[in-house]
Amino acid sequence: MKLFAVETGNFKLDGGAMFGVVPKLLWERTNPADAKNRIDMSARALLIEDGQRLILIDTGLGNKQDEKFFGHYDLWGGHSLEKSLKNLGYHVDEITDVFLTHLHFDHVGGAIRRAKNGLLVPTFKNAHYWSHQAHWRWATQPNAREKASFLPENILPIEQSGQLKLLTEKDAIIEVSPLGFDAVLVDGHTEKQMLPLISYKGQKILFAADLIPTAGHLPIPYVMGYDTRPLLTLEEKTRILQKAVQESWLLFLEHDPHHELLGLKETEKGVRMDFYNTLAKHF
Hints:
Elements: E1 2-14, H1 15-19, H2 24-27, E2 38-50, E3 53-57, H3 67-71, H4 81-87, E4 97-99, H5 105-108, E5 112-114, E6 120-122, E7 128-132, H6 133-140, H7 152-160, E8 164-167, E9 173-176, E10 181-186, E11 193-200, E12 203-207, H8 230-246, E13 250-252, E14 261-267, E15 270-277, H9 279-282
């Protein structure tokens, strides 16, 4: 097995929304804001090469939305999904599986592209797309709170293509046996978000997605305003971070442009970062 970080692009989001009720005086120590109160964000995917499979976890924002849409998020940097895959020596047509932690636009936008004829088609024409059945239903029949994050053009073409695979298990940790890793299910941010838990070179790596989007979100009360069930997020973070410390898991961060891979330690203030590195340098 080989793992690669895939930088799909950087953007900005409102810092207040990213930290909920936590005062700016506190969260800005780790995530400084610009003049519009926005913090830097990445959309970092993970690529797994394992035997005959080439698995991509999440896909970033993509590039099919219009200028007005992207204007809200102030894209920055020169990364793109296709460019990063090419730099790693891969092509989109080689991807066999796309595992989607959840279907918010910044995680699934790159899964669908607009063809030259204007039609929306899968970016990865030879891949199965994996989601959770309960989350798929949640995303295709969205509540008012999340509706702006579940864009039909990112989601419905996956099902229409016939490439969709739905998982149905509901245990706290499920085995995604076709792909060779487990997934931790969490419901605080959105219904049945799936966090891949990968065994790699003697260590376990948790793809933290939106449970812990940046290193600044490690403190238990630092919960996003976007979460649909923030009190449940508190419980999930507590349980998972404790287990991560006890079993020496590493965290792979999707949304932190400055911290890719975290080691953790227990302190008098709770679980905190012990060290950070990149996948390439750590292994």
